[in-house]
């Protein structure tokens, strides 16, 4: 009879969460490298290169792949013959492991979890509690799969209750374009079919824990109807031309995973959850012999990829740039930013809006006039860092604040990831501003361009505080120019037409 000790489980969870914060699964790296070699879109190829370089840097430096170190999800398969040497419950042990991982002094991870989600949304400070799913199974071992899911991809989860005669492929192809690029493709799509509403969602999430194997299935041919559906969806989703970071290209998904379950004769529940470019999960088994040991990848597993901005990149001094200057920036153009910028995301924008609505002045140091704002919630620094990994957050969440910020503060432009919606694009066009895109999934690489960092306001918001960053040669792409032209519309349309398998949408 196996006895699982409390400290072994706590430390194993902590170790696994640290591990997945800086090691991509090897299957993801191999398939992303293959996609990089196939990619014909210069913009998408550039983005994939940054993701691959960032991944190797994180493996070497043991720092997070993405600044959003995720909400922890844990799948437990508890053998019914297992005995426990523990004073805490299973959930308490797992949460203690999460707490230990996220406060590790050598690789502190970002605390992103807020309690009272419909009210005060106060940060729990240690990223607990995790979302835990437990199944009792025959046997005398404890199997654990841990995952850390970023908000950008989790927020794009979709669910539908189809009629039994409705086509799943049609729903997926209609839905994926509506998800935009906030989930940081190229990644995976997890699909759950059947059961009930909550079961379908759980199946979709659980499917993302499996290794990437779509190329093997394509090479040998599908053996089951589910495998045939996976291949069809893989090919047709990529034919949409969305591409890496939504810039247009050949690869939007590296795999499509599907799990199904029997359902009611009148029902056809279908859930879809994307996994982003920072896909993070690990599996281990406790058999009573001690703490789990995860295999350390070899650096040879990463491809030898280099990146440069290119001779045509425009250098921009943020300390002297003017409203007239930004009128000359072209959609898709690469800029190298140097100088000072302010940061801010959801909570800071809401607080700024409330302050201005009361007729009050913004705090000292929060002067956006003639400046740029970077949508980011960085990881705390360790050792000699000025800031931890600091990649962009999804810009569309700030769309409703965009007109207010441009109208009331004198802001010149914004930096984030993914597309802007119609409301934000119209505000950008009206105010002759600009939106710049940094690569999601390259947070450690981006942080190396940040030379100085200090909190200037709203320190109580934690990672959502307003910082001032001083950057040097921070690479960005002009995603929406002052005329309102968006590369997230033009790029996918161009590549969908080039691929030619699916008619290009006109709206």
Question: What does this entry show, briefly?
Answer:
The chain is α/β, with parallel strands linked by helices and 507 residues long. The chain has 3 domains: 1-150, no CATH class; 152-275, no CATH class; 314-491, Alpha-Beta Barrel (fumarase).
Q: Which SSEs are present, and which pair or pack?
A:
Blueprint: E1 3-5, H1 6-22, H2 26-38, H3 42-61, E2 71-79, E3 83-85, H4 90-102, E4 114-115, E5 122-123, E6 131-137, E7 142-149, H5 151-154, E8 158-162, H6 168-175, E9 187-194, H7 197-207, H8 214-220, H9 225-238, E10 253-261, E11 268-275, E12 281-286, E13 314-317, H10 323-326, E14 334-343, H11 346-357, E15 372-374, H12 399-409, E16 413-416, H13 422-431, E17 434-437, H14 443-447, E18 450-457, E19 466-480, H15 487-499
Parallel strand pairs: 1-3, 2-6, 9-10, 13-14, 14-15, 15-16, 16-17
Antiparallel strand pairs: 2-7, 4-5, 7-12, 8-11, 9-11, 14-19, 17-19, 18-19
Helix pairs in contact: 1-4, 2-3, 11-12, 12-13
